[in-house]
Amino acid sequence: MAFHYFLITFALMILNEDTIKVVAFDADDTLWDCQSWFDEVERQCGSLLSPWVTQEEVTQGLFATERNNMELLGYGTKAFTISLVENAVKITNGQVPGSIVMKLIELGKSLLRFPTTPLPEVQPTLQRLFNDGRYRLVVFTKGELLDQESKLKRSGLANYFEYMETVSNKGKDEYVALCDHLDITPDQLLMVGNSFRSDIAPALAIGSYTVHIPYHVVWELEKSEEFPHKRLEKISNFNQLLRILSVNP
Fold first, then answer.
1. Alpha-carbon 56 to chain mean position
2. Three-class DSSP category at 23
């Protein structure tokens, strides 16, 4: 009951006070599917390494390797590919042949080319928000700059956004810097994303509004505890943003 109250309060604060000036969107698994492609590469890696180890061992080893490499390599496809190869060498005790290493590298490269088809309701909702004209629309995501720019271009959604920023991490400092760059106060920002850890919690921490739209697959390193908040609303369909922002559907 308390959480339901928070949701109602959140919507009323936006509609009555008209505080929101910028709506920022996460990219991967918010605007288009991404994690499913990485999961598929992980499964193919398991098949390639099946003469030596199980799929579970590949998954556990890869998670540990990615976590250990995070501080040095950050997020993104290239970091994932390095971890993919490193993990293969480690868990096979160096027995993996060069031919399979090359296949793993090609699998990693395939993640730079997969189709970034917009998720259901994304394109028409962005079109409505863009046509409404009351809100500045931006993309705020983490990963590798060239990769994220390429995905946005391939999605066909780029024209809806006035600005895109790709960062190595999405914490409180990065959200403050985004607001400074856009010349807004934190309470004039609405952050929309699938990751509670990266898109919701740090934005709430600086006083911004947030909309959480979970995706059916979640990267292990993005999993975190969720909590209710008066500036948070959780939705299941992308077009519910129109109600929150008082835009005619």
1. 25
2. strand
Please tell me whether residue 66 adopts helix, strand or coil conformation.
helix
Q: Tell me the residue type at 87.
A: N
Residue 205 has a pLDDT of: 97
Distance of alpha carbon 142 from alpha carbon 200, whole angstroms: 14
Extract the tokens encoding 64.
């540990």
- Whose structure tokens read 């975190």? 224
**Structure-block tokens of residue 161:** 């956004």
Question: Distance (Å, rounded) from C-alpha 70 to C-alpha 110?
Answer: 21
Residue 249 has pLDDT above 80, yes or no: no
Taking the C-alpha atoms of residue 234 and residue 232, their distance in angstroms, rounded to an integer, is 7
Instruction: Dump pLDDT digits (tens) for 48-100.
Output: 999 999 999 999 999 999 999 988 998 889 999 999 999 999 999 999 999 99
Q: Is 145 helix (H, G, I), strand (E, B) or coil?
A: helix
What is the rounded CA–CA span in Å between residue 240 and residue 246? 10
Angle at 64 between CA 98 and CA 218, to 5 degrees: 105
DSSP string spanning 119-157?
PTTHHHHHHHHHHH-SSEEEEEEES-HHHHHHHHHHHT-
